Amino acid sequence: MDKKILVIDDDESIIWVIKKALEPSGYGIISRTKLSSGLRAVQDKPHVILLDLVLPDGDGLEGLREIRSLNPDAIVIMITAHARMQSTITAMKEGAYDYLEKPFDIEELKIVVEKAFRDLSLREELREFKKAAFETEFPQMIGKSPKMLKVFKDIGKVAPKDITVLITGESGTGKELVAKAIHFNSRRSLGPFVAINSASIPRELLESELFGYKKGAFTGAIKNKTGKIESANGGTLFLDEIYEMDSSLQAKLLRFLQEKEFTPLGSNENISADVRIIGAANKDLAEAVARGSFREDLFYRFNVVQIKLPPLRERKEDIPLLVRNFLREAVEKLETGEKEFSKDATALLIKYDWPGNVRELENVIKRACVLSTGTVIEKKDLLIEEGASYSIKDFLEEKLKHYLKDMTKVSNFNLYGTVLSEVEKALITIVMRETNGNQLKTAKVLGINRNTLRTKIKEYKIK
To answer: Distance between CA atoms of 252 and 280, rounded to whole angstroms?
Structure first.
């Protein structure tokens, strides 16, 4: 690591002393005597910044806040001849690494600076370790198809930039894995990664999960609870299926995105949190905005950058890579002994349409490893129907072409509306039957919110 130090101090004698003390040890010193020119120099990414508290054109504490925004990885050491308890406390709260009072002891300066660079080195090692652990833990984030290479490029572009990201894609495509890849490749990688699925929590409880609550806020609140936003302070919060939030919660989330402050339930205190938000949806949020079920202003807040994950059926060239990876993982974890797929089984894995995407592929391979006898996994061990390898489009075209054969000759018939409503009714009825009437599970499988499902059930008189 190049040991670059920026000194922002209007006292030329202090700058001379710092250079005399540190340059023989290999530190590269640049100096500025005004806050404005110092902030411009921050953009050159110095590792350590020695910042005076009182400058001719500005307040050092304001400069500290600006530096934290411009170069959050830099270590800032405050130096001043006007030490006061409150300014010391404020500086440390704002993220200062240490605080030296003029005239400072040269040996103390050397110790603090050496410690700062040692901590920077350890921080970088820890960041690399976490990235390596992520890559080991989630090997299914692989692919060589053009669509997946674009996803990887998009992750690389947005990860270093502390902006809100929206990840879209069908269920099972790996949206949370993308969110984790963004987190572990960002400056927040040393902070927490917290995930919450909006559809898995009842709407009336989702607000308290996000923002937390104070004791006595409602019946059953017997003690204070920290919310997910506060738990993610300094890191990343991943909100999956964000369209499941009701309008009042959407408004509160929007306020947090704008002001970086929130209020726990039952409290009058505003709490600040430095959290990057990554949202995900398996449906078109723009359509939800058009229907009025999702706030337009919140949509634009999330949609600063959108990463679209392709379904597995659109990147079939990645299936052999994924199969080898999941097979190796299953053999190791399940201790089944060496396994391999027969040619017929491999062909079916590539041909199959994978409506459940990568998650379904992983589960099929695990199951086949357990159920198969011997070292070769046959087609029958996969327990997937070859007929299911037809896409939904192919299936519907095959079924509808017989029914509609003579319908095109009939005028004044609402063919479009009739077919769509009948298909929708049949789809909801089948899924309701499969989930034993559980509306929450049905809505999740269909990819719609529960209010929409209830409306459809009432409209079609489904029992």
So the answer is: 18
Domains 4-125 and 155-310 share a fold: yes
Whether the CB-CB separation of 165 and 307 falls below 8 Å is answered with yes
Cα 342 to Cα 321: distance, rounded to the nearest angstrom: 16
**20 in Cβ contact with 108 (< 8 Å):** no
Domain covering 4-125: architecture: 3-Layer(aba) Sandwich (3.40)
Task: Report the length, in residues, of the chain.
Answer: 463
Task: List Cα–Cα distances, 290 to 105, 167, 294, 434, 454, in angstroms.
Answer: 65, 19, 8, 31, 20
Per-residue pLDDT of the chain (463 residues; tens, 9 = 90+): 578 999 999 999 999 999 999 999 999 999 999 999 999 999 888 999 999 988 999 888 889 988 988 888 899 999 877 656 667 677 777 788 988 888 888 899 999 999 999 998 888 887 777 666 655 555 457 889 999 999 999 999 999 888 999 999 999 999 999 999 999 888 898 899 999 998 888 877 898 999 999 888 887 888 898 999 999 999 999 999 998 899 999 999 999 999 999 999 988 889 999 999 999 998 888 888 988 889 999 999 998 899 999 999 999 999 999 999 899 989 998 888 999 999 999 999 999 999 999 999 999 999 999 989 889 999 999 988 765 555 566 566 666 766 666 555 555 667 777 888 888 888 899 988 888 888 888 888 888 888 888 888 988 888 7
Strand order in the sheet with 276-281: 193-197, 236-240, 276-281, 165-168, 305-308
Of 49, 43, 178, give the one whose Cα is nearest residue 112: 49
Radius of gyration of the chain measured on its C-alpha atoms: 29
pTM of structure: 0.64
Helix axes 415-434, 439-446, angle to 10 degrees: 130
For the domain 402-460, what is the CATH code? 1.10.10.60
Three-class SS string for 280-303?
Answer: EECCCHHHHHHHCCCCHHHHHHHC
Beta-bridged to residue 80, according to DSSP, are 101
